[in-house]
Write a structure and sequence with these properties.
The complex is a heterodimer of chains A (about 120) and B (about 290). With about 120 residues, chain A is mainly alpha-helical. Chain A is built from four helices and two strands, in the order ααββαα. Chain B has about 290 residues and is mainly alpha-helical. Chain B has a single domain, classed as MetI-like fold (Orthogonal Bundle), CATH 1.10.3720.10. Chain B has a two-stranded antiparallel sheet. In chain B, strand 1 and strand 2 form a beta hairpin. In chain B, helix 4 packs across helix 7. Classes of the chains: A mainly alpha (about 120), B mainly alpha (about 290).
């Protein structure tokens, strides 16, 4: 929880208090308002990209094919589509259902597997 | 001949990467961070989770702005694309007229957006503007600063004036690339003007028209400066399109969290449309 402590006030009662300057509090980056949750998200995206690079190194060419949508897709297209649909699944869940957002995350992963297999 | 593998050229990409990092990646990451937090300035942030997303998704204000935005984009696409094709078809094919037309057509495209807004604002003012005064003199009750219908009419007219030329230029380029042999064959077959358009010109213009629709969609979907200068989103909220509403929320009310959530949703919509058009264009490429 190191990021929460340093970059974001934990709760409303700490609003008016002066923030203690922590180890990671560089002046040039505090405005970016990092939290461990969003940092984890971007680390996940970075891992995806690195993973895709390694996959491409191992099996070059991006395994293009014509999927069920009738589109020529490569691995990169499938990752893009999975991430974009994950965003929509999460937004849809938030807007229509609300609680237990982790179900949407699981749905997104299932959908991503589907996209990587068939699209 | 074997190509030598040399990856050093990637080093030349570094400056672009740094530039993109500073003007796109870092701001986008910051927007994501803001979308989950509340702030009152001074770099103090409170974690709010998905609250802003829920709020935006369920807010009538966002629905209304999105509805206005989609309506505006559809209206200008339905006017500009057919009008642009029609003008391109009637433009001269050779002689001095070509240059004259092309220069005249490019003029509106060269004018900065805020100047376009200011020009049309003055042009449409009901008391001193040429358009506004003339319409009122003709008996129309026209006042774009007070009646939302008039504000819409003026905004659409301004956008049509500003951007139809782009569709014209693209369509004209598409038309000029058709070989004369197609027209000769059509003439021998005794094809009507309509069938020439429907079966020769339109299919040949498909690629440029896809690009024209994409460009016009994106530009109109993200329109900000012109309506901001012309109407400022008013009267009331009548012409507050998505980006105008977004800026109102972010800078006017300093609601950075909800504004960030809204911009992310906005971004996803734009990204999806881009993806669809990209695939359409790739399909066109594949066919030819």
């Amino acid at each position: 929880m190191i990021f929460t402590k340093l970059y974001a006030a934990n709760s409303w009662d700490s609003v008016a208090k002066t923030q203690e300057k922590g180890f990671f509090d560089f002046e040039f980056i505090t405005w970016m308002a990092w939290t461990w949750q969003t940092a984890a998200f971007f680390v996940f995206i970075a891992c995806c990209l690195i993973g895709m690079t390694l996959w491409e190194k191992k099996k070059p060419g991006g395994s293009p094919r014509k999927g069920i949508l009738g589109l020529d897709t490569t691995r990169g297209d499938r990752l893009f589509l999975s991430l974009l649909s994950a965003a929509y699944i999460h937004l849809g869940w938030l807007g229509l259902i609300g609680p237990m957002l982790w179900v949407a995350t699981i749905l997104s992963f299932i959908f991503a597997i589907f996209v990587f297999r068939y699209v | 001949m074997n190509k030598t593998v040399n990856q050093k050229a990637w080093l030349f990409v570094i400056p672009v990467f740094v530039l993109v990092a500073f003007n796109a990646i870092i701001p986008l990451m910051t927007v994501v961070n803001y979308a989950f937090q509340e702030t009152f300035g001074n770099n103090v942030f409170m974690w709010e989770g998905t609250r802003w997303f829920k709020q935006i998704l369920l807010s009538d204000r966002f629905h209304a702005a999105l509805g206005r935005q989609i309506l505006f984009t559809l209206i200008i696409l339905f006017i500009q694309i057919p009008l642009g094709i029609f003008i391109a078809l009637t433009m001269p094919k050779e002689g001095i007229g070509v240059s004259v037309c092309l220069v005249l057509m490019s003029m509106p495209l060269l004018i900065p957006w805020n100047v376009v807004g200011a020009m049309w604002n003055i042009f449409a003012l009901p008391d001193i503007g040429f358009l506004g005064h003339s319409l009122n003199a003709l008996g129309f009750d026209y006042n774009f600063t007070q009646q939302s219908g008039d504000a819409w009419f003026t905004t659409v007219l301004m956008d049509v004036w500003h951007w139809t030329s782009l569709v014209v230029l693209l369509s004209y380029a598409g038309l000029r690339s058709i070989q004369p042999a197609y027209y000769q064959a059509a003439e021998i077959d005794g094809a009507s003007r309509w069938s020439v358009f429907r079966h020769i010109e339109l299919p040949k213009m498909k690629k440029v028209l896809t690009i024209a629709i994409l460009l016009r969609f994106m530009d109109s979907f993200m329109i900000y400066t012109e309506p901001f200068v012309l109407t400022g989103g008013g009267p009331g909220n009548a012409t507050a399109f998505l980006s105008i509403d977004l800026v109102k929320m972010a800078l006017g009310q300093f609601d950075l969290g909800p504004a960030a959530a809204m911009s992310l949703i906005y971004f996803f919509i734009v990204l999806t449309v881009c993806w669809v058009f990209y695939n359409l264009m790739m399909k066109n490429e594949g066919q030819s």
